[in-house]
Write a structure and sequence with these properties.
The protein has 138 residues and is of the alpha/beta class. Helix content is 21%, strand content 20%. It has one domain: Dinitrogenase iron-molybdenum cofactor biosynthesis domain (Nucleotidyltransferase, domain 5), CATH 3.30.420.130.
Length: 138
Amino acid sequence: MIAIPVKTNKENPAVTTLFGKAKWFAFIDGDKVTIEKNELQSGRAVVEDFVARGVTKIVFSHMGGNPFMLLQKAKIECFHSGEERILLNDVIEKLQNNQLIKVDGINMANFVEQGNMHNGGGNHHHDHNHDHGHQHNH
């Protein structure tokens, strides 16, 4: 099963930049897509829920280091949806066609927030020793 954090529970929603505090998660099981409200308030709780559900892959836009490490420990594969806004159907298609970057312990610094400084508001800067020159305005 695949889990993807999304912005709304409408058909074909956009992937959200939130992870643990995402309002909704899309679950893809074969050809069946369901969108469920996320009542959990932390990345740790979300990962524990995914393990209990049998999630094997997740796609994310932004994620903190702690949930990422928990996902790695749980052997759940992580894929980056990219920096651009993307709709659920498009991200599922890209995943099926192996067009998303798999995030692991080697390349995680490029895709995962370091430390606990992400407060969900304002502009923040990534310092991963390379310049990818963009800001996020939440």
